[in-house]
Amino acid sequence: MKIEKFEDIEAWKEARVLVKNVYSLFAECRDYGFRDQIQRAAVSTMANIAEGFDRGSNKEFIQFLVIARGSVSEVRSLSYAALDIGYLDIDQCNAIQERSTRLSSLLNGFIRYLNNSERKR
Length: 121
Prior knowledge:
This protein is mainly α. The chain is about 75% helix and about 0% strand.
């Protein structure tokens, strides 16, 4: 399938679901600093995939995908903190971990692909 818009990117679709999950899980969290940080990291993942797509070269796109990968790692790390301080239960934490790990794998694969191809728009 040819990717014609960022909405076609599997990693972006997965990041969108992660954002929805994070916002849902932390909607009632009164620790606003923590809640805002994990939400920003999730949104950053999705936004960087989209922004990178509209850059002119594979090199620039890859830079944004690497930033997205860092943001999803931040979400994964913060989910452990949320478990440890009682904001998430083990099942909720595991769900974020699994989605984050899948997203990281998708980003890694996409980066490998872009490193070995010329992007056609």
